[in-house]
Design a protein that fits this description.
Layout: H1 2-10, H2 14-28, E1 31-34, H3 42-45, H4 51-73, H5 83-91, H6 107-113, E2 116-121, E3 130-135, E4 180-186, E5 197-205, E6 216-221, E7 228-230, E8 240-246, H7 264-271, E9 279-283, E10 295-299, H8 302-307, E11 317-327, E12 330-339, E13 360-364, E14 367-372, H9 375-380, E15 390-395, H10 401-407, H11 419-433, H12 436-447, H13 456-476, E16 483-484, E17 508-510, E18 516-519, E19 523-530, E20 543-548, E21 553-559, E22 565-572, E23 581-588, E24 596-605, E25 623-629, H14 634-638, E26 647-651, E27 655-661, H15 665-674, H16 679-703, H17 705-708, H18 719-743, H19 745-756
Parallel strand pairs: 2-9, 13-15, 16-25, 18-24, 25-27
Antiparallel strand pairs: 1-6, 2-3, 3-8, 4-5, 4-8, 5-6, 5-7, 9-10, 11-12, 11-21, 12-15, 13-14, 17-19, 19-22, 20-23, 21-22, 23-24, 26-27
Helix pairs in contact: 13-16, 15-16, 16-18, 16-19
Length: 757
């Protein structure tokens, strides 16, 4: 048995496991039991569709094992109600947030990170590495395997508030992405459950063709139906648990572990977005070795990377903020970061942290539970120039149990599409919409692309295009119209000057004007500026927001004060009457210092006619702006355009910007033909092309095919597919337009010449 155990401890391939099983079967007469005690366990274990989610569940289990061991060593305290509080009290991590640790290279954090490791090893197949998860936590006694690590839908963590596990299937879904899994564990001596090392092998039994409808997952035990075990000294296998998935299909995450995307580094930081405890990832594959040495990296989560950075990452975040807000009977905290546009390929930078189409991450205890789409940023918030630069985290650690029940699924691959999710989405929109710095940054980035063509011909082109669009919208009932933009100088947006901190603070001034109209039953914000330290506003004993009368609504939370500017959030009551007034007082009571306050009045108003929850009060017709782009244009460079790109539409609160590629291959052929005649002919062909392609691009964007296309089960099509469809439609439209221009080439080229004559 000792020899078998040593072989098992070093086994990384299916062939090695098969050889071990042959010996176990012949010499020890092992038997097989179904995982979870159920012969029909495939339907439960195969519930997961993403191998990353199953692998992350193993990491979560390891974190729980380390937390649980510390709980025992602390005397099993009863005053710890969350993993964050446990991390703060037991490991000295402020608020249980790794973002609060300034120096992650410190010995205590590095040593803590070594207590959990995830390692990629070579197997027989290059694309299917063996994945090992090892922790030095409580460990498990062999007879408890069936009730813990090999259980299904058990409730062994539901009363342990210091642990993360609650909503997952444990790590059982990870079993479905490989044929064999090794489990080895030794209980820590503090558990007083003996000192033996227990182990088993899990495999998939296909049931035989024509004999069973489905196969099942099973694990081996001794002939006495007891887990295989061996007595070993501590130095041969330290207390804790090792799980090794042999030849695991980890999907796209098989690149070199240190790669920024499609790697274990990306998987760990993205799915453990705000991990409670650090852990280590290691690459032992030939492809991971650097000069013969294996790679080791500590994982601290994307929240910390975006907030504090490391290496050059600090320079890759231009702006950050967060707000802690009331939600139902609990709270959520929303974090948001804007990535810089400096450096190489800024448009692709977001891929280092999340999928560009899913930049809003929903987490519980730091683990990703789901996401919201980037359409919120582009369409709802009208921040099109931040679409690929804005990353958002919705932390649900303090959400009430009923909301969690409605929101979270057991696979943790995505959240449930319920009314709670819609309300959470609305909260994100209302929160970010109040941040004027996001609007300023969006306009600042827009201005980089505005190279005005103020010719009379361009003015006429925009008017013709606006007229065509309005006729179409009127005929189809497609909503409010548009108008041609005026050829005026763009006003550059300016960042507000930072306010120096004073101690004690001298002022708190509300900048929201008096008698502000606020919509009944909706969220609204009050802006203020101050010279007080930002930390004072995060303490409910020092910062107050009072609304009188109380029946008018309630204070829901505030954003972090940045450079002396802050936002307080409120929500009006559904029952408040139109025209009702309220006084809002912001009050700061620094300890042992003078109280400072300011007050503003608000008036309840109904939603304007023709508006809705998404765009309350937005009745102004947007302007049409055409931006001509070529190889030297910044937009062309930032968006990795080439000669096949046609156009793009960006829509903010005031203007619809249509970027048209003047370097398109089909247009280029027409212009080569036109330049044989005259400059006027070239301009005439260009402008006719721009008008028709601009109309086509606007219509494709306006039609919002993402809202029309749904899968059979009611789910929306993946954003990447939507973009491919739009791109194909634009390319087809471009070819059609160019074909028509070619057919009427002589008429169009002489049009301008005759006008000039």
């Amino acid at each position: 048995m000792k020899k078998i155990f040593e072989q098992l401890l070093n086994a990384n391939t299916a062939r090695e496991i098969t050889d071990i099983l042959e010996v176990l079967t012949e010499d020890f007469e092992i038997k097989w039991l179904p995982v979870g005690g159920r012969g029909n366990n495939q339907s439960t274990i195969n519930m997961g569709t993403d191998p990353a989610a199953g692998l992350v569940e193993r990491i979560t289990n390891s974190i729980d094992a380390v937390l649980d061991l510390e709980w025992y060593e602390q005397g099993c305290p009863t005053d710890i109600d969350s993993p964050r509080l446990a991390a703060q009290k037991w490991f000295g991590i402020q608020e249980g947030k790794l973002r609060n640790i300034k120096d992650a290279s410190g010995k205590s954090i590095q040593e803590l990170g070594k207590r959990i490791s995830v390692t990629l090893k070579d197997s027989e197949r290059e694309d299917f590495p063996t994945v090992e998860i090892r922790d030095y936590g409580t460990g498990i006694k062999g007879e408890d395997f069936s009730k813990t690590i090999l259980s299904l839908n058990d409730n062994n963590k539901i009363d342990k508030l210091h642990q993360m596990g609650a909503y997952g299937q444990g790590g059982s879904t990870a079993l479905s992405f490989n044929t064999f899994t090794i489990i080895i564990s030794r209980p820590h001596k503090i558990l007083k459950k003996g000192n033996g090392v227990s182990f088993t092998i899990v495999r998939f039994n296909d049931g035989g063709v024509g004999q069973k409808k489905l196969g099942w997952y099973e694990y081996c035990v001794s002939d006495k139906l007891q887990t295989l075990s061996i007595d070993l000294p501590e130095d041969k296998f330290k207390s804790g648990t090792l799980v090794r998935h042999i030849g695991m299909d980890i999907g796209k995450y098989k690149a070199k572990i240190t790669g920024p995307t499609s790697s274990l580094w990306y998987l760990a930081h993205h799915f453990m977005f705000d991990t409670v405890l650090p852990f280590t990832i290691t690459g032992e594959r030939e492809s991971d070795l650097t000069k013969g040495k294996k790679e080791n990296r500590i994982v601290l989560g994307n929240n910390r990377r975006l907030t504090l950075g490391g290496g050059d990452e600090r320079e890759l975040t231009q702006y950050k903020n967060d707000a802690s807000l009331t939600f139902k009977d609990g709270k959520v905290t929303i974090y948001w970061w804007v990535l810089t546009i400096e450096g190489e390929k800024p448009w692709d930078r977001i891929k280092n942290y999340t999928q560009a189409s899913q930049p809003i991450i929903i987490t519980f205890n730091g683990q990703k539970q789901g996401h919201l789409l980037n359409s919120i940023i582009k369409t709802e918030l009208k921040l099109p120039f931040l679409e690929k630069y804005l990353v958002v985290q919705i932390e649900c650690d303090q959400m009430d149990n009923e909301s969690k029940r409605q929101l979270f699924s057991s696979t943790r691959e995505n959240t449930r599409d319920t009314s709670i999710k819609k309300e959470l989405e609305r909260l994100v929109i209302d929160t970010l919409e109040a941040d004027d710095e996001l609007k300023r940054l969006d306009k600042e980035r827009r201005d980089r692309y505005l190279q005005k063509d103020e010719t009379e011909a361009m003015d006429k082109l925009k008017k013709r295009l606006a007229s065509r669009i309005n006729h179409y919208l009127k005929a189809t009932g497609g909503g409010s119209g548009v108008k041609a933009s005026e050829t005026s100088q763009t006003v550059k947006t300016k960042k507000q000057p930072p306010i120096p901190i004073n101690d004690p603070p001298t002022f708190l001034e509300i900048t929201t004007p008096d008698d502000k109209e606020v919509f009944i039953g909706k969220t609204f914000s009050v802006k203020f500026k101050t010279d007080a330290h930002p930390n004072l506003f995060s303490n409910p004993d020092w910062f107050f927001a009072v609304m009188e009368p109380h029946s008018f609504g309630s204070f829901t939370g505030s954003a972090r004060v940045v450079d002396g500017y802050g936002i307080a959030y409120f929500k009006t009551s559904d029952a408040v009457e139109e025209g009702a007034e309220a006084k809002i007082t912001l009050e700061l009571r620094p300890p042992r210092q003078k109280t400072i306050t300011d007050t503003v009045s608000v008036i309840a108003a109904p939603l304007p006619e023709g508006s809705d929850d998404k765009n309350p009060g937005n009745k102004n017709a947007p302007k049409i702006e055409i931006i001509n782009v070529n190889e030297n244009h910044q937009y062309y460079k930032d968006h990795n355009w080439n000669k096949t790109n046609v156009a793009s539409v960006e829509d903010d609160q005031d203007t619809v910007y249509i970027y048209i590629n003047d370097s398109n291959q089909h247009l280029t052929k027409l212009l080569e033909r036109a330049q044989q005649y005259s400059t006027q002919a070239v301009d005439s062909i260009k402008n006719r092309y721009r008008e028709h392609v601009g109309f086509c691009a606007f219509m494709i964007d306006k039609n919002k095919i993402e809202e029309r296309l749904q899968t059979e089960d009611g789910k929306t099509i993946a954003p990447e597919i939507i973009e491919q469809i739009k791109t194909a439609d634009l390319e087809n439209g471009c070819e059609t337009v160019c074909g028509m221009i070619s057919d009427f080439f002589e008429y169009i080229r002489t049009e301008t010449e005759e006008t000039v004559a």
